[in-house]
Design goal:
mainly alpha; Topoisomerase I, Chain A, domain 4; V-ATPase_V0D/AC39_subunit; ion transport; V/A-type H+-transporting ATPase subunit C; ATPase_csu/dsu_sf
Length: about 350
């Protein structure tokens, strides 16, 4: 790595991060009565250029995700070689998000009417999705051959577990590609990047194995097959050991390690995703402030993701008329006075 190689992009990201919404902004928005009032509030912030004021919640969420895509594309131009390749690979996440939305719609046979407004990168008209469309028909229309290869083996499966299989394989594909790219970073950039990505992979594997054991009664061999290599603390042997454990033993083993917060407290299943996201959020926040290597970019993209996730969450809370406390409780960021509180 050339000293100062990322100075320009680091300065750009620091300027952008300084304009992130503050905690009080989320409290203020959670006190409002409607999505339209939230959008009006946002028009007086650094995000004002995104909205025209007439959006419903689906349109607002889509515009926020498009903003995230455009930010990644803009920042990717500061990088060269494998670093630019990594940045652009992040865009696959949005396609995967859209594929998952379509698969869920087809599996439950409902929701096609709103699908067009919920898709981010895929063109709804290319797939002609209806509530009675089949998963096989959809897969046959996907243009990306890598995604077709992942999904085609499950095209005619009728069991409810098939959705779990497809979603896990899509995520495995995404994180494996990121991991393989990071392995080609130079030494100074590789170590911090592998740590940040590796912790995300660890948490993903833990959540997958837990759900596979508890809800789908998957065999150890199936669980191992779906795990992603490249974790920071959990080696392949660790994952194998966890996959061959009973559910109680699995939880016991996780609670004795660095990710015990996933199972601390109550309502584990309800809050697991939020505990995962909150841990990564504060880790990314720390990495962004202290690092000047490529992991600063990785951390920034995570912070941007959680900014949009929290905005979407507070909009959803207004749609369902949640109380202030309950609205804030669903956010990734903590409002309980400590970054170490995972509930």
């Amino acid at each position: 790595m050339i000293i100062g190689e990322f100075n320009a992009v680091n300065a750009k990201m620091s300027a952008m991060a300084s304009k992130f919404l503050k905690d009080e902004d989320y409290i203020n928005m959670a006190r409002l009565n409607s999505v339209s009032q939230i959008i009006e509030y946002l028009k007086n912030t650094s995000l004002s250029f995104i909205f025209d004021g007439d959006e419903d919640s689906f349109e607002a969420e889509k515009k926020l995700q498009v903003y995230r895509i455009n930010t990644i594309k803009k920042l990717s131009k500061y990088f060269k070689g494998v670093y630019r390749e990594f940045a652009l690979e992040l865009l696959n996440e949005f396609t995967i998000m859209d594929i998952k939305k379509i698969l869920r719609t087809l599996k439950i046979g409902d929701g096609a009417r709103t699908l067009e407004s919920r898709l981010i990168t895929l063109n709804y008209r290319d797939y002609d999705i209806k509530n009675n469309s089949s998963i096989a028909d959809f897969i046959g229309k996907i243009k990306n051959k890598e995604f077709v290869k992942i999904l085609k083996p499950y095209a005619d499966e009728k069991d409810d577990i098939v959705l779990f299989y497809m979603e896990m394989n899509l995520d495995k594909f995404f994180y494996t590609k990121l991991f393989n790219l990071v392995k080609n970073f130079d030494r100074q950039n590789k170590k911090p990047a592998l740590e940040l990505l590796g912790i995300r992979i660890d948490l993903l594997n833990i959540i997958w194995i837990y759900r596979g054991l508890k809800y789908y009664d998957l065999s150890p061999e199936e669980l191992i097959n779906f795990t992603v290599l490249g974790g920071h603390y959990l080696s392949f042997d660790d994952l194998k050991d966890l996959s061959y454990s009973s559910l109680d033993k699995f939880v016991e083993k996780i609670k004795s390690g660095p990710y015990k917060f996933l199972f601390d407290g109550t309502y584990t299943d309800i809050y697991m995703d939020r505990r995962n996201n909150r841990y990564i959020y504060y880790l990314a926040k720390s990495d962004f402030l202290k690092n000047s290597d490529f992991s600063k970019f990785m951390a920034f993209i995570l912070l941007l993701n959680y900014e949009i996730k929290d905005l979407t969450s507070v909009m959803e809370s207004r749609r369902f008329n949640m109380s202030l406390d309950r609205s804030l409780n669903y956010l990734v960021r903590s409002y309980k006075g400590s970054e170490q509180i995972w509930l």
